[in-house]
Amino acid sequence: MTDPYAVFGLPADADDETIRRRYLELVRQFSPERHPEKFAAIRQAYERLRDLDTRLRYRLFEAGKNESIDSLLEELACRTSRRRLTLQALVQSVQKP
């Protein structure tokens, strides 16, 4: 699979709203009737990036960038100021089906 951030043309630290806006722009630009392959790639990329949990799973297990859990926890703690993340909460969120 190609890098979903590359499909969207966004940096890896993009937030939920930026990802959602870019997804909607691309969906309007590439209709499924005229560009079925591109539309499928956009849809698949959005499935990987649609929310914080799926992005976390992607970056931990599929991206192959060997990011440390500590760096991801720090980044997530900055983004989620209302909830306190712990290593246990991170592991539980990753283990969800």
Q: What can you tell me about this protein's structure?
A:
The chain is an all-alpha fold and 97 residues long. The protein has a domain at 1-50: DnaJ domain (Helix Hairpins, Orthogonal Bundle), CATH 1.10.287.110. It contains six helices and no strands. It has helices at 4-8, 16-29, 36-49, 52-62, 69-79, 87-95. Helix 2 packs antiparallel against helix 3 (36-49). The chain is elongated, with a radius of gyration of 15 Å. It starts with a helix and ends with a helix.
Topology:
Elements: H1 4-8, H2 16-29, H3 36-49, H4 52-62, H5 69-79, H6 87-95
Helix pairs in contact: 2-3
Q: What's the overall average pLDDT, rounded? A: 79
Q: Could you say what the CATH topology of the domain at 1-50 is called?
A: Helix Hairpins
The SSE order reads: HHHHHH
The parts where pLDDT drops under 50 for at least 5 residues are: none
Query: Cα distance, first to last residue?
Result: 20 Å
Spatial extent as radius of gyration:
15 Å
Helix content: 55-70%
Shape: elongated
Strand content: under 5%
How many strand segments?
0
**Which architecture of the domain at 1-50 per CATH?**
Orthogonal Bundle
Q: For the record, what is the CATH homologous superfamily label of the domain at 1-50?
A: DnaJ domain
